[in-house]
Amino acid sequence: MGKVLTIHGGVPLKGKVTVRGAKNLVPKAMVAALLGDSPSVLRNVPEIKDVAVVTSLLKIHGVLVSKDEATGDLTLDPTAAKTAPSNEIDAHAGDSRIPILFCGPLIHSIGEAFIPDLGGCRIGDRPIDYHLNVLRQFGAIVDKRPGGIAISAPEGLKGAKVSLPYPSVGATEQVLLTAVRAAGTTELVGAAVEPEILDLIALLQKMGAIIVVQNDRTIRIEGVPTLKGYNHKALPDRNESASWASAALVTKGDIFVEGAVQRDLTAFLNTYRKIGGEFEVTDDGIRFFHPGGPLNPLVLETDVHPGFMTDWQQPLVVALTQADGVSIVHETVYENRFGFTDALVTMGASVQLHRECLGAIPCRFGQRNFQHSAIISGPVKLKGADIDVPDLRGGFSHLIAALAAEGTSHVTGIELINRGYEKFMEKLIGLGARVELAELAKTA
Ligand SMILES: CC(=O)N[C@H]1[C@@H](OP(=O)(O)OP(=O)(O)OC[C@H]2O[C@@H](n3ccc(=O)[nH]c3=O)[C@H](O)[C@@H]2O)O[C@H](CO)[C@@H](O)[C@@H]1O
Ligand SMILES: C=C(OP(=O)(O)O)C(=O)O
To answer: Residue 444 domain-assigned?
Structure first.
């Protein structure tokens, strides 16, 4: 039975939240533990759904995963890794996008992999063609089956010269996790270089990997036959930090985000400043606040790092509904990431979607039928509504819109928020939000 969250809007969020390890690094670091011949220790691990899914997948593959209840640190011992029963793997189909990254590590440790159909946010087609192409170039045989894909490498995995048509985060990680123990050298051209990828590289280097990152999106990896376990503190979640920053702006509040790191948020902070939000950087985190007065509209394009991250877009769009004038947002990473704006329109926002590229550079989606540009006019008074959460970031944007709105909102599907926001209910209550969680009433 699901839950319904009742939100009484109009309360500025004020106080402190703590952000721990990044959703977009921690589960991948857990997968990397499979590559070691001794246990790894991962610190700063958040309690989020994707961590639970990967813990379960590792366990059914024979990896011992134990958690220090006092610190939350995970110890991952891969020394008894084994083939998992297919029914137990099937049970995880649709849970997250991380299983595809098990390919290389499982082939290196047990010689084969069965990967269940992927889940993750429904923000477009989200194909895995880049992943499968690079795996084939390493010598893997990919066999699509009902419920997932079977992958093996009878001749072993061998380093290759590979290039990505677009700097995909996941496909770059696929190459890294496969190449570090493949025979010979790998050259990856067109790599993504998000901070979470650089943190994964740091952790792999601790394990004994040899990886060179050039400043032209080329990564060179010299394969080594064995790796050892790592001890690593995960970098903090910059996407959660940016979400709370937008929550401060939208609700006219003041939030200190402990753990927010300026270096990983440069593009976000520039935009935050231009829109009229203020922030103060300290050694422990960043204070984000609304200084009073009107917010400024702006023109924004999402992009791969070091650009403005696509996962920051949705909460910031809510802030743009409060800006004084017309803003334009061009989403260039995913073809279908504005679905969440329907609910904002129901709440009173003025958002028009367009198929054209309303940005400086035409993107991959321009001549196709995707509504990937948004025109947002403000300021508008948001009013409470009944909302069903569509995906992680879209859902968070609905929460903060409801928190700023006049009146009461009822939000269902909030379980999706647990994929990337640790203890978000506790955090909201700690910031003064007037929220109540109840079981969804049974309908006849
Ligand atoms: C768990 C995780 O880390 N998720 C993040 C990761 O997702 P993820 O790794 O899935 O995103 P990618 O960077 O791979 O996707 C970028 C673009 O490439 C396309 N593509 C990707 C792979 C492929 O085989 N074929 C293909 O066409 C995608 O459809 C998308 O249009 O990076 C995204 C972009 O920063 C973030 O929004 C997600 O939060
Ligand atoms: C798109 C996201 O996540 P995932 O890739 O895990 O679906 C996200 O974190 O906003």
So the answer is: no
Question: What separation in Å is there between the alpha carbon of 33 and the centre of ligand 2?
Answer: 22
- The verdict on 328 and 408 lying in the same domain is yes
- 234-262: burial string, b at 16+ Cβ within 10 Å, e else: bbbbbbbbbbbbbbbbbbbbbbbbbbbbe
Q: Tell me what pLDDT residue 442 has.
A: 66
Q: Whose CA is nearest to atom 6 of ligand 1?
A: 169
pLDDT score for 98 = 95
- Domain match, 8 and 111 both: no
Ligand nearest the Cα of residue 196 is 1
Tell me how many domains the chain contains: 2
C-beta of 96 in contact with ligand 1 (< 6 A): no
Q: Is 336 annotated as a binding residue?
A: no
**Is 121 among the residues known to form the active site?**
yes
pLDDT of residue 443: 55
Residue 211 sits in the same domain as residue 277:
no
Question: What pLDDT score was predicted for residue 361?
Answer: 80
Atom of ligand 1 nearest to the CA of 125: 29
Give the neighbor-by-neighbor strand order of the sheet with 3-8: 386-388, 408-412, 3-8, 434-439
Q: Which of 233, 252, 287 is at the close of a domain?
A: 233
| pLDDT at position 432 over 50 | yes
**Ligand 1 site, residue 193, Cβ cutoff 6 A:** no
Do 46 and 139 have their domain in common?
yes
Residue 311 is assigned to a ligand binding site:
yes
Please report which confidence band the pLDDT of residue 122 belongs to, taking 50, 70 and 90 as the band edges.
Answer: confident
Full domain range(s) for residue 290:
3-19+236-439
Residue 54 lies in a domain: yes
Of 345, 429, 420, nearest to 120 by C-alpha is 420
H runs (alpha helix) in 189-295: 195-207, 238-250, 266-275
Sheet of 210-213, strand order: 161-163, 185-189, 218-222, 210-213
Q: Specify the pLDDT at position 150.
A: 95
Q: Does residue 26's CB lie within 6 angstroms of at least one atom of ligand 2?
A: no
Domain of 41: which CATH number?
3.65.10.10
Side by side, the strands of the sheet bearing 148-152 are: 112-116, 148-152, 141-145
User: Could you tell me if the CB of 392 is within 6 A of ligand 2?
Assistant: yes
Do residues 404 and 259 both lie within one domain?
Answer: yes
List, for residues 181-207, the tens digit of each pLDDT value.
Answer: 999 999 999 999 999 999 999 999 999
ipTM over 0.85: yes
Q: Which atom of ligand 2 is nearest to the CA of 311?
A: 10
